[in-house]
Write a structure and sequence with these properties.
about 425 residues, Na+/H+ antiporter like fold, single chain, about 70% helix, about 0% strand, mainly alpha
Length: about 425
């Protein structure tokens, strides 16, 4: 009896869902991450004669765009709900440094490398650099803060810095993507009037709308869920975790309708919602539900990435394109991340770990799919996808193998050293999954 495509797909989905539930605990003590397993599974299964559907991110750009968009906003809600540290200029100093210094330096250096090595137009080089700029909250589970707790200082500096950075830079990379689109539309002319519009509209206005909408949505939902006068609307007492999805979609949809940055609004909403009732047990319920959805979406997308690799997704990759990805992960991000943290919070070995774990992932696919739908990059499109896929592939493997040993080392060293006055308690265990 011949296996049908439908049967093969549903079988793979069922096995994937089971693995998404079991693997985090099975792999918690091994130097192998869950994303690596799903990536390898996608490669292996697509090398078998099973009648699985072909996957091409160029031809299937629309569903890649929307599925990665969904995965990112769900992960942003989970990251915001997990952060225990109170918001503040000094307590979030590591995040501001990574966002204000490391990200622009990374974009500039990566764009320069792509322009010099690949001979791309500046707009194309800037687009790939902007797409690869945000660190990823989806694939960074081993180095991300854990579930919500009542303790406002229950986070070590490395996990907090990486989580807050990943939560905010998914939205703050958008202006650079839009700059690449505007530059391409202007024929790579820097002297056009597009720059004034970009600074005013795409940077100042849209960021402000994203932050304001996120704060307003978080405040209103906090009032509704925890302190509504109508008992039937006080949803925190009912323990329905899927309300977190409602908050995610509302924040994202309304902000996008107002022409703000929805990614930014979702994370801000989550942080505001977390602050509204910091120690309430419903925070853990919402976080747990969102984390389960995130894990399923991550498994599907990593499987698709493996399928892309096995189906020739790297055929357009040259050694120069590969060099751009390697430079980004091994030189550009570690150096810019380290420079951004000079005289910042944390010990030197903590700052080094934060600089190293600039994980690339699902957000990069979203930005590239979005830009290719908005602009005309036809002759460069497959090569751009090859560079981005390669960079994410290397990041998944490199950071996935090193995450558990590095975080274990950091935890053991922190337990031996006296605590520093950084606003966070040391020695939090590795988050599994």
């Amino acid at each position: 009896m011949q296996i049908t495509t439908e049967g093969a797909v549903y079988t793979c989905l069922g096995i994937g869902a089971l693995l998404a539930a079991a693997l985090p605990r099975l792999l918690s003590r091994l130097p192998v991450s869950v994303p690596i397993v799903f990536l390898a599974a996608g490669v292996v299964l697509y090398l078998t004669p099973l009648p699985l559907p072909a996957f091409d991110p160029v031809a299937d750009r629309v569903w890649v765009h929307h599925l990665t968009e969904l995965c990112v906003i769900v992960s942003l809600m989970g990251a915001g709900l997990a952060i225990n540290r109170p918001f503040g200029r000094r307590s979030w100093a590591a995040a501001w440094r990574l966002l204000g210094l490391a990200m622009p330096l990374t974009i500039g250096a990566t764009a320069l490398a792509a322009w010099a090595l690949l001979g791309w137009p500046v707009s194309v080089a800037l687009l790939v650099a902007a797409a690869l700029a945000p660190t990823d909250p989806v694939l960074a589970s081993e180095v991300r803060v854990g579930e919500p707790t009542a303790d406002k200082e229950d986070e070590d500096e490395v996990r907090f810095a990486l989580t807050s950075e990943a939560g905010l830079n998914d939205g703050l990379a958008f202006p650079f993507v839009l700059a690449a689109l505007a530059l391409a539309a202007a024929g790579n002319d820097w002297t056009g009037g597009w720059m004034v519009h970009w600074v005013w509209s795409d940077v100042l206005v849209r960021i402000s709308v994203g932050v304001a909408a996120g704060l307003a949505m978080g405040f209103l939902l906090g009032r509704l869920l925890f302190r509504s006068r109508a008992t039937s609307l006080r949803l925190a007492e009912q323990g329905e975790g899927f309300v977190a999805l409602a908050a995610t979609f509302l924040a994202y949809g309304l902000t996008e309708a107002l022409h703000g940055y929805g990614f930014l609004a979702v994370f801000v909403t989550a942080c505001a919602l977390r602050k509204s009732e910091h120690s309430h047990g419903y925070q853990r319920v919402m976080h747990a539900f969102v984390e389960q959805i995130e894990r399923l979406l991550m498994a599907l997308l990593l499987f698709a990435l493996g399928a892309c690799v096995a189906s020739g997704g790297l055929a357009a990759l040259t050694w120069r394109g590969a060099a751009v990805g390697v430079l980004l992960l091994l030189v550009v991000r570690p150096v810019s991340g380290w420079l951004a943290q000079v005289r910042g919070p944390g010990r030197p070995h903590e700052r080094a770990a934060t600089a190293f774990f600039g994980i690339r992932g699902i957000g990069s696919f979203f930005y590239l799919a979005y830009a290719c739908g908005e602009g005309d990059f036809g002759r460069y499109e497959r090569e751009m996808w090859a560079v981005v896929v390669f960079a994410v592939l290397i990041s998944v493997v490199l950071h996935g193998i090193t995450a558990a040993p590095v975080t274990t080392y950091l935890d053991r060293r922190s337990a031996r050293e006296p605590p520093r006055r950084t606003g966070a308690r040391r020695g939090v265990g590795t988050r599994a999954g």
